[in-house]
Amino acid sequence: MEKSCPADDVNFGNESSRPLRCGATMTSDRSHCNQIPKAYIRPLSERPRLDEVALSDDISLIDLTDLNGPNRQLAIHQIQRACQEDGFFHVINHGVPDTDVNTMLAVATEFFTMPTEFREQFYSEDPSSVVRLSTSFNVHKENVCNWRYYLRHHCYPLEKYIDAWPSRPHAYREVVGKYCREVRALVIQLLAAISESLGLEPHFLDKALGNHAQHMAINYYPRCPNPELTFGLPAHSDPNALTVLLQGHVSGLQVLRNGRWCAVQPIPNAFVVNLGDQLEVLSNGIYKSAIHRAVVNCSEARISVPTFYCPSPDAVIQPAPGLITCDNPARYRKFTYEEYYEKFWSKDLVEKTCLNSFTTDGLDANTTAPDDK
């Protein structure tokens, strides 16, 4: 029998107050519900099957202190192995102060306690909006809604976008702006290390991303009365180059390892780093773009803060020439990031990746998922 438990105080409302089309504006109804509305219930074949998820305690944990000392080559080797085998890893001693991580989580949580009327001014169905509040991936494609809210905005160059960000909570722009600068510095360090791990010049990936772009999201997953029936976010790979995730203390991230879903437990003061589609292409398929998903629970709301580091729209993405050989010919064609990004947002998450639309003839992307679609 499917269990149910009380919904969170901030919930998606009852079915009559929320249109079935995904992504409709948030209801102000704060009533509790004992089961999720039908619009959020996945078909049986698409449900998360939570009892089959593995608990992984062997996910790579890389101490970035080693990148700046005599153990640099050890850290480079650890990054290489994690990128080849999984496409994701944890990092500690990453240079973002614990106080800034904690204030980022605090202001993220506080944003979702702001009055509904304030938050709804940022609602948009346009994925290209520089600031966007929504619950949906693609409102025009999805048949089943996701159990989450999110605020997404651009953040590099910071001075170009910061004035469009929410002015409340009072410290939002100051706290988030500082956090964005610190995470960008971390990403630049990681790009150099990943380049080296591929046998490329340290600045190769930095240059390949053109003028760079950076987006971030604040995901809020309310408590869910029937977590086994829905997703916070279904399986997908990220379209960007590199994602740095601040998890908070509540578990919910799951990644695909060797054909099986594995829970990634939060580690205090650590980030999860996962490779996006652009790094799979630039590495000519040597490294994996990680397929992952977010599940929900009935006990506690969850906050996560992913930073998406991207090529600039005009950057031309193609496999690194030094990684194309007779044994490993070019797996992907040349394209601009703008072309890829438009393709990504034009689909829904029934397709877990759109890499296959950019492979050379006769080759498939190496990112596969179990038959849960």
From TrEMBL:
<dbReference type="GO" id="GO:0002229">
    <property type="term" value="P:defense response to oomycetes"/>
</dbReference>
<keyword id="KW-0479">Metal-binding</keyword>
<keyword id="KW-0560">Oxidoreductase</keyword>
<protein>
    <recommendedName>
        <fullName>Fe2OG dioxygenase domain-containing protein</fullName>
    </recommendedName>
</protein>
<dbReference type="GO" id="GO:0051213">
    <property type="term" value="F:dioxygenase activity"/>
</dbReference>
<dbReference type="InterPro" id="IPR027443">
    <property type="entry name" value="IPNS-like_sf"/>
</dbReference>
<keyword id="KW-0408">Iron</keyword>
<comment type="similarity">
    <text>Belongs to the iron/ascorbate-dependent oxidoreductase family.</text>
</comment>
<dbReference type="GO" id="GO:0046872">
    <property type="term" value="F:metal ion binding"/>
</dbReference>
<dbReference type="Pfam" id="PF03171">
    <property type="entry name" value="2OG-FeII_Oxy"/>
</dbReference>
<dbReference type="InterPro" id="IPR026992">
    <property type="entry name" value="DIOX_N"/>
</dbReference>
<dbReference type="InterPro" id="IPR050295">
    <property type="entry name" value="Plant_2OG-oxidoreductases"/>
</dbReference>
<dbReference type="InterPro" id="IPR044861">
    <property type="entry name" value="IPNS-like_FE2OG_OXY"/>
</dbReference>
<dbReference type="InterPro" id="IPR005123">
    <property type="entry name" value="Oxoglu/Fe-dep_dioxygenase_dom"/>
</dbReference>
<dbReference type="Pfam" id="PF14226">
    <property type="entry name" value="DIOX_N"/>
</dbReference>
<keyword id="KW-0223">Dioxygenase</keyword>
<feature type="domain" description="Fe2OG dioxygenase">
    <location>
        <begin position="212"/>
        <end position="311"/>
    </location>
</feature>
